[in-house]
Specification:
The complex is a heterodimer of chains A (449) and B (254). Helices cover 26% and strands 24% of the residues of chain A. Chain A is α+β, with helices and mostly antiparallel strands. In chain A, the strands form 5 sheets. Chain A has an 8-stranded antiparallel β-sheet with strand order 16-12-14-13-19-20-18-21, sandwiched between helices. Chain A has a 5-stranded antiparallel β-sheet with strand order 5-6-10-8-9. In chain A, helix 5 crosses helix 13 and helix 10 packs antiparallel against helix 11. Chain A is globular and about 60 Å long. The model of chain A has no long low-confidence stretch (mean pLDDT 96). Chain B has 254 residues and is of the alpha/beta class. Chain B has 9 helices and 9 strands. In chain B, the strands form 2 sheets. In chain B, strands 3-2-1-4-5-6-9 form a 7-stranded parallel β-sheet, with helices on both faces. In chain B, helix 1 links the parallel strand 1 and strand 2. The model of chain B has no long low-confidence stretch (mean pLDDT 94). The chains are: A alpha+beta (449), B alpha/beta (254). Chains A and B meet through strand 2, helix 11 and helix 14 of A and helix 5 of B.
C-alpha cells in the first residue's frame, strides 16, 4: 500500500492516490468499507485514455491481482472469472478449446472488470453488440458491503447501470461470460483500398451485413479529392477448411509475441503533422489497390499495436488523447464535415478508425448507438486542438451523437448531460446503491457524474 | 481537475482584483473554467471583476481575504477546498510600495515585505496542503524579474519577491510526487494599476500577456514562466554582470 501517481493510457492529467492491490473479495470489501472521504474506484490495466480509473487524494483498487479463471463450461462456453482477468489471459486459456472472447477491442490488455465498466465494443459491434451483452451475470460489491448477483433479467436497473457505468456503482467481484465458439484462431480478412470517404462508407454499408468484423482506417490528413481515403477490412473467423494444410495441424494456435518495448525517451513532438502525414500516406499505399483476401492472426487483425509494449510512449511526456464519437447514420453529413475540418486544420492522427455500430446497448451510460463511429488519436500539443475539439463536440451534439467515456479526457459536464439521455436513470440507481458517493473517480468529479 | 489539454475547471484567486488576476481568470473562464473564487479585500474593483467573470456563464463568488491577516488564512482558505476540488490556485496579490518613501519609513517597508512574502508564504502553505489532499492541482505564484536581481530603485519590493520566488521553487520541489504542481511566473515590468505613473522599463509587458503566459504554462505544466519569454535571456545576462556595471545600467534606468 502506498501512494502512486496515476494517469490513463494517454498519459495526461495525473493525480496521486493510495493504491491497494487486493487478492480476495474480503480485501476488496475491507478497502471499500474503510475508504476515506475521497472515496474509491477500481482500476484494471489502465487502458482507458483519460481519468476514469484514477481518484486523486482517494483510493484506487488495482484489481489486476484478482485474475483467476474460476470455472469453465466447455459445452456451453460459459466462463466464470475474477475482474482482473485480462482478455489476453482468456484467449490463451480458451482458444485451445475453441472459444474466443465475445468482444475484442483494439487491445487484449484490458480486464473483464474494465470491459464491463466501459461496456467496450470491437470490430464486431454491428454483429455482436457490446461486451455487456455477453455477460450472463456478475457479482457486484456495493458501497454498504452487500454483494449482489446481477443478471439482466433479475436486476436490470443495477445491471445496466453497472455495464458502462465507469465503475461508479460498485466493484465487480466476478462475472460469467458467454464466449464465442470458433473453429480456428485465424481471421479471413478482405482488405480493400478506398479512394475517399464516400467509397469507404459505401463499401462498409454494403459489406457489413456479410461479415462479423468490419472496420475502415483513414489517412486523416489527406484532403481534396482524397479526403477520407484509406482501406476497409472485413473479416470472419476462418473455418478449418480455409486454412492451408500446415496450419490445419494446429488451427487454434495463439502465441502472440510482443515485438519490442517502446523506450520512454521520445520527445513530445515526434508525431506531428509532417511525420504523421508521411506515415499515413505510407500506410495507405501499403494497402492493396484491389481487394485482397488473406489469413490474419488474432494479434495482427485485432491488436496490431499490442505488439509494441507501451506504444503510448511514442507521444512523449505531453501525451495524447483519443477522441471517439458516434453520430446516427442519417448524420453522415456531420461525419464528413468533421473529417474535412480535421484534415484542413492538419491535426495529425496516426490511428483513425471508422466503424458502423449496430443497435444501442441497454447500458444507461453505454456508448454505442446505431450509427457511424470515428476515432482519432491526437497528440495533446497539436496547435489549435482545444478549439477544434470543442467545435467537434458541438457538431456531434447537434447531430444527436455522443462521446465515449472510456476515451474521454476533456469533455464538459454539460455536453455529457445532453449526449446521454439516460444519465438521470443512472444517477437514480447510483443514488440508491451508493448514496454517500463512495465510488468516485477523477472523471466522475470532472463530469459531475 | 485539469483536463488532458490543461484546461482548468475551477480556480481560486488570491488577490482577485489585480489586473493580472482578472485577465487570467477571464481567459480561463472563456476557456472552460466554470467555478471561480476571488479572494481579496472587499472593494468595488473586486465586485466589478466578479460581475465581469459571471458574464461568461460560470459560478463566481468573492471571499473576504486579507493577505496581511496571516492568522486568518487557514480559516478563510481551507474551507473553500471542501466545497469541491480546486484545480488552480493563483497567488496574485502583492504591493509595489514606494521605494524612496519606504526607505525612510521602515514600517512601510515591512508592510511590503509582509504582504509580498509573509502573507504569500502562509496562504500558499494553506493552499498547498489542501491541494495535496486532492492529489492534484496547480499553485501559480506571481514573482517578478526583480526577484532575479534587484536594483537600488526597487530592492525592497525586489527582495520580497526574491524571497517568495525561492520559497515557491522549494515548495514545488517538496511537492513532487504529491500530484501538486507549483508554477513560478516572472513577468517583467507590467503596466497595471500597481505601476501607473512609474517610468516604464525596457521589455515591459501587460497584464494580458502575463495571463496568456499563465494559461499556456498551465497547459504545459511549466515550472517557471517568463513574460515576455525573451526576458529570461536578458535577466540571465543581467544577473551575471559585475556589480559596478550593473549599477551603471540601473542608474540609467532610474
Amino acid at each position: 500500500m502506498g501512494t502512486e501517481r496515476l494517469t490513463g493510457w494517454g498519459r495526461t492529467s495525473p493525480s496521486v492516490a493510495e493504491v491497494l492491490r487486493p487478492r480476495t473479495r474480503e480485501d476488496v470489501a475491507e478497502a471499500v468499507a474503510t475508504a476515506g472521504p475521497r472515496g474509491i474506484v477500481a482500476r484494471g490495466l489502465g487502458r482507458s485514455y483519460g481519468d476514469p480509473a484514477q481518484n486523486g487524494g482517494g483510493r484506487v483498487l488495482d484489481l489486476t491481482g484478482m485474475n483467476r479463471i474460476l470455472s469453465v463450461d466447455l459445452a456451453s462456453g460459459l466462463v466464470v472469472v475474477e475482474p482482473g482477468v485480462s482478455l489476453q489471459q482468456l484467449m490463451r486459456a480458451m482458444l485451445p478449446f475453441g472459444y474466443f472472447v465475445p468482444v475484442s477491442p483494439g487491445t487484449r490488455y484490458v480486464t473483464v472488470g474494465g470491459a464491463i465498466a466501459c461496456d467496450i465494443h470491437g470490430k464486431s459491434h454491428h454483429a455482436d453488440g457490446s461486451f455487456a451483452r455477453h455477460v450472463v451475470s456478475m457479482d457486484l460489491l456495493l458501497a454498504d458491503g452487500d454483494v449482489r448477483t446481477l443478471t439482466p433479467e433479475t436486476e436490470p436497473g443495477l445491471f445496466w447501470a453497472t455495464a458502462g457505468g465507469m465503475g461508479l456503482t460498485g466493484v465487480v467481484l466476478r462475472a460469467t461470460l458467454r464466449m464465442l465458439p470458433v473453429e480456428t484462431s485465424r481471421i479471413l480478412v478482405e482488405t480493400t483500398r478506398v479512394a475517399d470517404l464516400d467509397e469507404a462508407m459505401d463499401r462498409m454499408t454494403e459489406t457489413d451485413a456479410d461479415h462479423r468484423f468490419s472496420v475502415a482506417s483513414l489517412d486523416n490528413l489527406a484532403t481534396g479529392p482524397s479526403l477520407g481515403r484509406g482501406w476497409v477490412e472485413s473479416g470472419d473467423f476462418a473455418a478449418l477448411a480455409d486454412l492451408p494444410p500446415k496450419q490445419r495441424e494446429n488451427p487454434l494456435a495463439f502465441q502472440p509475441k510482443p515485438l519490442a518495448a517502446m523506450p520512454d525517451l521520445f520527445p513530445s513532438g515526434l508525431l506531428n503533422k509532417r511525420t504523421v502525414r508521411l506515415l499515413n500516406a505510407a500506410n495507405y499505399r501499403r494497402a492493396p489497390q484491389h481487394s485482397h483476401t488473406h489469413l490474419a492472426s488474432i494479434g495482427g487483425f485485432f491488436h496490431p499495436l499490442d505488439a509494441i509494449h507501451g506504444w503510448n510512449r511514442v507521444y512523449g511526456a505531453a501525451g495524447f488523447l483519443q477522441y471517439q464519437f458516434v453520430v446516427p447514420f442519417d448524420a453522415a453529413a456531420t461525419l464528413r464535415r468533421i473529417v474535412e475540418r480535421v484534415a484542413v486544420q492538419r491535426a495529425p492522427s496516426f490511428v483513425t478508425v471508422l466503424k458502423r455500430f449496430g443497435p444501442a446497448s441497454p447500458g444507461y451510460l453505454s456508448f454505442p448507438t446505431e450509427g457511424w463511429t470515428l476515432t482519432y488519436d491526437f497528440p495533446t500539443r497539436t496547435p489549435g486542438l482545444p478549439g477544434l475539439l470543442r467545435w467537434m463536440d458541438e457538431k456531434v451534439l447537434e447531430a444527436g451523437g455522443r462521446l465515449y467515456l472510456a476515451k474521454d479526457s476533456r469533455m464538459s459536464a454539460a455536453d455529457l448531460e445532453a449526449m446521454y439521455p439516460r444519465l438521470e436513470d443512472f444517477r437514480k440507481v447510483r443514488a440508491e446503491v451508493d448514496p454517500q458517493g463512495v465510488f468516485v473517480s477523477d472523471q466522475s468529479r470532472r463530469l459531475s457524474l | 481537475m485539469k483536463d488532458s489539454l490543461g484546461s482548468v475547471q475551477s480556480l481560486l484567486v488570491l488577490g482577485g482584483s489585480s489586473d493580472i488576476a482578472v485577465a487570467t481568470a477571464r481567459k480561463l473562464a472563456q476557456d472552460k473554467t466554470k467555478r471561480i473564487i476571488l479572494a481579496a479585500r472587499p472593494s468595488d474593483r473586486l465586485n466589478a471583476a466578479a460581475t465581469l467573470l459571471r458574464s461568461y456563464g460560470g459560478e463566481v463568488r468573492t471571499v473576504d481575504f486579507d493577505a496581511l491577516d496571516f492568522s486568518s488564512h487557514e480559516k478563510v482558505l481551507a474551507p473553500l477546498f471542501e466545497e469541491g476540488d480546486i484545480d488552480v490556485v493563483l497567488l496574485a496579490f502583492g504591493v509595489l510600495g514606494d521605494q524612496a518613501d519606504d526607505e525612510r519609513d521602515p514600517l512601510a517597508a515591512a508592510q511590503v515585505v509582509q504582504t509580498n512574502y509573509v502573507g504569500a508564504v502562509t496562504s500558499s502553505l494553506v493552499c498547498s496542503q489542501a491541494l495535496r489532499k486532492q492529489g492534484h492541482g496547480s499553485l501559480v505564484v506571481l514573482s517578478s524579474v526583480a526577484a532575479e536581481r534587484a536594483r537600488k530603485a526597487n530592492f525592497i519590493y525586489g527582495s520580497s519577491k526574491a524571497g517568495l520566488d525561492a520559497f515557491a521553487q522549494g515548495l514545488g520541489d517538496s511537492l513532487v510526487g504529491t500530484g501538486v504542481h507549483v508554477m513560478v511566473v516572472r513577468p517583467s515590468f507590467v503596466d497595471t494599476k500597481m505601476t501607473t505613473g512609474r517610468p516604464k522599463a525596457p521589455m515591459s509587458t501587460t497584464a494580458e500577456a502575463v495571463a496568456d503566459g499563465i494559461v499556456e504554462g498551465l497547459r504545459k505544466n511549466a515550472e517557471l514562466v517568463w513574460v515576455p519569454a525573451q526576458v529570461r535571456y536578458a535577466m540571465s545576462t543581467l544577473r551575471h554582470l559585475p556589480r559596478p556595471v550593473f549599477r551603471k545600467l540601473a542608474e540609467k534606468q532610474g
